[in-house]
Specification:
Elements lengths: L39 E4 L11 E2 L1 E3 L4 E6 L7 E3 L1 E3 L5 E3 L5 E3 L1 E9 L2 E11 L8 E8 L4 E3 L7 E7 L5 E5 L7 E3 L4 E12 L3 H4 L6 E6 L19 E2 L260 H7 L5
Parallel strand pairs: 4-10, 17-18
Antiparallel strand pairs: 1-2, 1-6, 3-4, 5-8, 7-9, 9-10, 11-16, 11-17, 12-15, 13-14, 13-16
């Protein structure tokens, strides 16, 4: 469908809302019989040789603005305006007179009043015919699709719907960006022009209809995230890559795109700072991403949660990352990442929660954990049982549920420095928790919350009577369910029942 002749046929114009009623901005603009305003302005092809079709300019009376987009042939031309004015109102230039393409002014006057309007006649640069955004959509008979435009996006394009119909979209206009098909089938939709902002999360429409992207063309995704969220039938066969030069946010990009499993390893993601939820519940995605430069990514939160991803990403530079919360939660990921520089990470909350296969060596993280504040639920429900003796835990404040229902039972953590620890709630709780190692040497003198620490644990029976628990304010359900556990193993808590009631319900 590429044809250079379209350059001479394609006319784009900016669509803006013209306000003619007295209900528009009534606080400072009120149209009545004696107001100075413009009803409409037409740029007619019969008066302007560079046009093949008439263009109606957008007139915004409250802001005194007149805009239109002209084809490249208008460059350097005089533009004849057909101006429709209310009775008693005149203008300079008058209807039938011309102004230069570009910026100029128009003076409207009458009834002893006058208003100056700013005219912006923008001449569009020629579009290249090899810059077409091409996608494929599947519809039923009578089915409608809507392009996922954003309110803050920038649009000046012509869309060929694949059934012989076409539309011009100039600005955020979902009516022009929607199309109904008479017959069921797969339709190739070609967009020719500028499109900046493509977001199914924002529009929540036609998600199931888009099935392929075969060429990215001039498309820019925007920067609001959610671009292909919920596109349950999407694949990407395009061998080129989207222009990501203005996109730093990949949040929820392919979230719930349940069929997606295409090669995107060639994308330039070097400017991206957030990959939050990027493949969350993308239950078929398992493609290599080892070529990605993620050195500027700050959040990997929930990136691969509940996805099928299990590719080697050991070469990733994650030195800018501050959170890996939920990153590999409930996923089949089991690749070596022990060499990662996680020195700036503050949260490992639920990173490997419910991951039943991860068993890689993480000892290399040992001296790089100095900024970590929370490891809440980090290995909850997981099968991990690696050596963590080298880990610097001196700044960690919360280990709430860290090994709850986990298979972890490694004595390597006996030497941990927990001097900053505040919250140990349910750390070794749960019927499936396997932990039963000597941790009597831990410094828990700053811990406030030990609620449910071993609740429902069937095996732990170590002697903790020597722990300094003088700062503990909550110890409800501290005990294990092990038959070999007795009161002699318990620390000597000073907290009263009243204190438990007061502190145990605090936020964690």
């Amino acid at each position: 469908m590429k044809n250079l002749n379209r350059i001479y046929q394609f006319i784009l114009f900016t669509v803006a809302l013209a306000f003619f009623g007295c209900d528009v901005d009534s606080t400072d603009f009120d149209i009545d019989d004696r107001d100075v305003y413009i009803e409409s302005i037409l740029i007619e092809a019969k008066n302007n040789s560079f046009l093949e079709a008439d263009i109606e300019a957008a007139v915004v009376n409250p802001s005194r603005l007149i805009t239109a987009s002209l084809p490249p042939e208008a460059e350097g031309q005089q533009v004849v305006l057909t101006i429709n004015l209310p009775s008693g109102i005149e203008s300079t230039p008058a209807s039938g007179e011309s102004v230069a393409a570009g910026e100029s002014t128009l003076l409207a006057y009458g009834f002893g009043l006058e208003e100056e309007f700013n005219i912006q006649l923008n001449v569009l640069a020629p579009f290249q015919s090899d810059k077409e955004f091409v996608s494929v959509w599947r519809v039923d008979a009578g089915g409608e699709i809507t392009l996922p435009l954003e309110e803050d996006g920038e649009y000046n394009f012509k869309v060929f719907w694949g059934d012989g119909e076409e539309d011009i979209v100039a600005g955020y206009d979902l009516s022009s960006a929607s199309h109904t098909y008479a017959e069921a089938g797969d339709y190739q939709v070609v967009i020719w022009g500028d499109i900046n902002g493509f977001n199914f999360d924002a529009t929540n429409t036609s998600r199931d209809n888009i099935i392929d992207i075969t060429d990215w063309g001039q498309l820019k995704l925007g920067n609001n995230g959610g671009y292909f969220r919920g596109c349950s039938n999407l694949q990407i066969s395009a061998t080129n890559a989207p222009d990501l030069s203005e996109t730093t946010n990949f949040r929820t990009m392919f979230r719930e795109a349940s069929s997606f499993n295409s090669n995107i390893n060639h994308w330039d993601v070097s400017g991206v700072t957030s990959m939050w939820d990027m493949f969350y519940k993308a239950t078929n995605f398992d493609q290599p991403l080892d070529n990605w430069d993620v050195s500027n990514v700050e959040t990997f939160e929930t990136m691969f949660n509940e996805s099928a991803f299990n590719q080697n990403i050991s070469s990733w530079d994650v030195s800018s990352a501050t959170t890996m919360k939920n990153m590999f939660r409930n996923s089949p990921f089991n690749q070596p990442i022990g060499n990662w520089n996680v020195a700036n990470v503050t949260s490992f909350q639920s990173t490997f929660r419910d991951n039943k296969v991860f068993d890689q060596d993480l000892s290399g993280w040992g001296d790089k954990l100095g900024n970590v504040v929370t490891m809440r639920e980090m290995f909850r429900g997981s099968s991990y049982n690696g050596d963590l003796s080298a880990w610097d835990m001196s700044k960690v404040e919360s280990m709430w549920d860290m090994f709850k229902d986990a298979e972890f039972n490694n004595a390597s953590i006996a030497n941990w420095d927990l001097s900053s620890m505040d919250n140990m709630e349910t750390m070794f709780g749960g019927k499936n928790c396997k932990f039963n190692q000597d941790i009597s040497s831990w410094d828990v003198s700053n811990v406030v919350n030990m609620q449910n620490l071993f609740k429902e644990n069937q095996v732990f029976n170590q002697d903790l009577s020597g722990w300094d628990v003088s700062n503990v304010k909550c110890n409800l359900d501290f005990d294990t369910d092990s038959p070999n556990w007795d009161d002699a193993h318990k620390p000597q808590f000073s907290v009263s029942k009243f204190d438990n009631n007061a502190f145990c319900s605090r936020p964690n």
